[in-house]
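Thread amino acids onto this structure.
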């Protein structure tokens, strides 16, 4: 899969926890690298056991096995990138929210493709000293046609 380079992480809001913000930023970079490398197991490993993945136009996936199956076709896209815009760490330093933008090239029947742009939100929870994705949702900015 040919991917476009991912942009810079922008810190626009932090409630507290610069160290936690840095950790989430690094995990986001690892996530992007795993997508670029088609590393399905690495991607799934970042999710909590009871995580929810909510892609557009598809049922929500609950748990790692379902998330694996939901991610599988996304790795077949010719281009998929993510760019975090805001990371907010809760005062408790046990939860963080990563909000950003994505771009994707989506193949259509007949050999054509469309470019999709949209936004995403990922809720990270600290679990046994490690950050895991608890909820992941994204949707397109493009109107339905």
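Threaded sequence (145 positions):
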């Amino acid at each position: 899969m040919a991917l476009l380079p991912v942009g810079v992480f922008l810190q626009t809001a932090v409630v507290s926890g610069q160290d936690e913000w840095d950790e989430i930023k690094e995990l986001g970079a690892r996530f992007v690298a795993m997508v670029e490398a088609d590393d399905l197991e690495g991607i799934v490993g970042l999710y909590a056991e009871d995580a929810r993945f909510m892609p557009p136009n598809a049922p929500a996936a609950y748990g790692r096995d379902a998330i694996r199956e939901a991610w599988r076709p996304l790795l077949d896209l010719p281009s998929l990138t993510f760019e975090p815009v805001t990371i907010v760490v809760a005062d408790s330093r046990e939860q963080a929210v990563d909000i950003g933008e994505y771009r994707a090239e989506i193949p259509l029947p007949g050999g054509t493709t469309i470019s999709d742009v949209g936004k995403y939100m990922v809720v990270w929870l600290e679990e046994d000293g490690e950050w895991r994705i608890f909820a992941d949702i994204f949707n397109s900015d493009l109107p339905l046609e």
